[in-house]
Design goal:
Radius of gyration: 25 Å
Low-confidence stretches: none
Strand content: 25-35%
Number of helices: 8
Distance between the termini: 70 Å
Strand order of the largest sheet: 5-6-7-3-8-9
CATH topology of the largest domain: Rossmann fold
Largest sheet: 6 strands, mixed
CATH architecture of the largest domain: 3-Layer(aba) Sandwich
CATH superfamily of the largest domain: P-loop containing nucleotide triphosphate hydrolases
Mean pLDDT: 83
Oligomer: single chain
Helix content: 10-25%
Number of strands: 18
Length: 423
């Protein structure tokens, strides 16, 4: 139909993954033999490499959908589901292995920090470069220039090479360019998570304005409330396949009830959707009571301890940060617990380490909650798992009245408070 701006038919993307086969030990003759094989491979590329195994991995398979002009579509799925791969193909950054895509209109994408920017050029020069890539004239870019700079809040650094920008400055400018240069289709990945809360709110407001102007928005995020508020439709990806394309409410419900619940059945060591350099990795999580005994569920108002096992490849002294993000079933963050918040930097040894995070008085109402886990060493992400584990909370006497504290239908959090009367 004429109002269809994106048509995807039987889309597939295949990658070839090589696995080096491990040997028990390597003798001198093995080294000489392997070097000879490598030389042989250079001379004859068709020579079989015996110490490597190759595996086909389909990041996307048989994905089909249509998006019409003015649609605001949220693409939902856990890490590794194929969301970013899909956006890269729609942005013409990657080529599909199978199937076809048809796009009508100018596309602006914000997929990763630095996408489309030249690090040696200044912020000013990159604005004009990006505009030219989008097919805009110099006069059109100049018309929007002041608006872009004001939104990005980088006026003082406009003539500084962007390679010297912080990640937050980079994202602010990149989003401002993508959103203000009037693309017919705006594609935004989870990259907005790099910015602070005020900037994220500002970006969501801008994307909402773009949608009201009749332009098409594709938005990827793990923040279900943000997706629900911004988008009218949702695509749920599971292991590279689109399991559902429906209204955003149905899509979020499907994702919550089906995709998230299946994660609890996957052992942590088998989670392939984690991010980080692997210098330290989360092994397991347990819930404990105030006696450090392992329990199955938490209780509102009682002490809850998260027992965290971390495996480290090296000794780390006072250069590690660990954080837990507690979310409700809709993916809304309720609160964070982090070592940096209490100015504590743990020191760990090579091998398995056990770290405890204690909440003296659990403020959660009865229900099921999910936890994101994050570990950073020397300001580099070591391990990051979204929806690493879930736990359930039972009702309890949070306010110490001797009665079960009544949960609110509109809130997942209890807070201590007092009432008084003056007559």
């Amino acid at each position: 139909m004429s109002d269809t701006v994106i048509r995807v038919e039987n889309l597939g993307k295949k990658y070839i993954i090589s696995h080096q086969q491990q040997e028990r030990y390597t003798a001198l003759r093995d080294v000489v033999t392997n070097k000879a094989k490598s030389l042989g491979n250079l001379i004859n590329p068709k020579t079989k490499v015996e110490n490597y195994a190759f595996e086909e991995f389909w990041a996307l398979k048989d994905v089909s959908f249509e998006i019409k002009q003015g649609d605001k579509v949220g693409i939902i799925g856990r890490n590794g589901a194929g969301k970013s791969t899909l956006l890269k193909i729609l942005s013409r950054i990657a080529e599909p292995t199978t199937g076809s895509i048809r796009i009508k209109g100018r596309v602006a994408s914000l997929l990763e920090v630095g996408t489309g920017f030249h690090p040696e050029l200044t912020g000013r020069e990159n604005i004009f470069l990006n505009g030219a890539i989008l097919g805009m004239s110099k006069a059109e870019i100049q018309k929007k220039f002041d608006e872009i700079v004001e939104f990005a809040e980088v006026e003082k650094f406009l003539d500084t090479p962007v390679k010297r920008y912080s990640s937050g400055m980079y994202v602010r400018l990149a989003f401002a360019v993508a959103a203000h240069l009037e693309p017919e289709i705006l594609i935004v990945d989870e990259v907005l998570a790099v910015g602070d809360a005020a900037f994220q709110k500002k970006c969501l407001g801008k994307m909402e304005d773009v949608g009201k102007e009749g332009r098409t928005v594709l938005f990827v995020s793990h923040n279900m409330p943000a997706v629900s508020n911004l988008c009218s439709q949702g695509i749920v990806l599971v292991e590279g396949k689109n399991q559902l394309y429906s209204s955003i409410d149905k899509a979020v419900m499907f994702y919550t009830n089906n995709t998230l619940n299946k994660l609890t059945l996957i052992p942590l060591e088998s989670r392939t959707d984690r991010k980080g350099n692997g210098k330290a990795r989360f092994i397991s999580f347990s819930l404990c009571n105030d006696q450090q005994q392992i329990i199955n569920r938490g209780v509102s108002g009682q002490k809850l301890i998260f027992k965290i096992q971390i495996d480290s490849k090296s000794e780390v002294r006072n250069e590690m940060m660990i954080a837990l993000g507690i979310k409700d079933r809709q993916g809304q963050y309720l609160f964070h617990c982090s070592t940096i918040a209490i100015a504590w930097e743990p020191s760990i040894v090579i091998g398995t380490n056990v770290i405890y995070c204690s909440i003296p008085k659990l403020p959660l109402t009865p229900g099921i909650y999910w936890v994101d886990v994050y570990c950073e060493i020397r300001r580099e992400v070591a391990d990051w798992i979204v929806d690493a584990f879930s736990f359930e909370v039972d009702e309890g006497d949070f306010f110490g009245t001797g009665k079960i504290s009544p949960p609110s239908k509109k809130s997942s959090i209890y807070i201590n408070h007092n009432w008084s009367l003056e007559q």
